[in-house]
Amino acid sequence: MRLRNVKGSREHIAINEYVIKDAETYKGTWKDLFQDGKPIHIEIGMGKGKFLMEMARQHPEIHYIGIEKYSSVLVRALEKMEEDPLDNVHFIRMDAEYINQVFDKGEVEEIYLNFSDPWPKDRHAKRRLTSRQFLARYKNIIRENQSVIFKTDNRDLFDFSLEEVKEAGWKLDLCTFDLHHSEYLEGNVMTEYEEKFVKKGNPICKMIIHYE
Ligand code: SAM
Q1: Residues forming beta bridges with residue 176, ordered by sequence position
Q2: Annotated catalytic, 117?
Q3: Does the C-beta of 52 come closer than 6 Å to ligand 1?
Q4: Are residues 113 and 50 in contact, defined by beta-carbon separation less than 8 angstroms?
Q5: Integer Cα distance of 130 and 191 in angstroms
Q6: 150 lines ligand 1 (CB under 6 A)
Q7: Helix 50-58 and helix 71-83: axis angle, to 10°?
Q8: Residue 21, exposed/middle/buried by CB under 10 A (0-12, 13-18, 19+)?
Q9: Residues 39-97: pLDDT tens digits?
Q10: How much distance in Å is there from the Cα of 46 to the middle of ligand 1?
Q11: Distance from Cα 106 to the centre of ligand 1, integer Å
Q12: Which residue's CA is minimally distant from atom 12 of ligand 1?
């Protein structure tokens, strides 16, 4: 994603009601914060939030938390939310590397990774959101037998992720190298990047994994 510094984005985020500040203070007590017993699903690297908001519209019985590293990107999602507010959408501005400081074991039911940054250099492999290092972090927060769902058009990143999944002992429940020409397309919610890549004719890969 091309990043432009958006003037005032930090200030906007600091006062926005949809952004959860000091998120680490809720570790172990997320259910108390929402007080309605609804499960929590997160999208890591949610960008401008199109997928997250559409999922939230379709599933009011779930709380969706979008996690985004950059203020200048998050602020675009906030602008969309202000136009069409949803009370089951929340945001955290943070680097997902520190996700274990925010959620405790079993607090998250599903984790979505959509079109994650590929970090093509080998020496940056551990920064990929599907690396064994990240899978170990997800294992610490996800409820037993729940899923991580990953989509990308980047075949190298997808192949790397398949190896990491195996290495880290996760189980593969679904795998397709061409989602849009597969039996798994029904109910698919498109992300911003997905729309762009599908228009270009790139095949979209998808996997669903869980840890027992
Ligand atoms: N998921 C969106 C989509 O499919 O349209 C955006 C994809 S964009 C290529 C990747 C996003 O992930 C960017 O907004 C980037 O800032 C964010 N990101 C990358 N690494 C991250 C990390 N470690 N923690 C949180 N967000 C991250």
Answers
A1: 206
A2: yes
A3: no
A4: no
A5: 18
A6: no
A7: 40
A8: exposed
A9: 999 999 999 999 999 999 999 999 999 999 999 999 999 999 999 999 999 999 999 99
A10: 6
A11: 23
A12: 45
pTM: 0.96
Ligand 1 centroid to residue 128 C-alpha, Å? 10
Distance of CA 163 to the CA centre of its chain: 20
Beta bridge mates, 160: none
3-state SS record for the chain: CCCCCCCCHHHHHHHCCCECCCHHHHCCCHHHHHCCCCCEEEEECCCCCHHHHHHHHHCCCCEEEEEECCHHHHHHHHHHHHHCCCCCEEEEECCHHHHHHCCCCCCECEEEEECCCCCCCHHHHHHCCCCHHHHHHHHCCECCCCEEEEEECCHHHHHHHHHHHHHCCCEEEEEECCHHHCCCCCCCCCCHHHHHHHHHCCCCEEEEEECC
Looking at ligand 1, which residue's alpha carbon is closest to its atom 11? 45
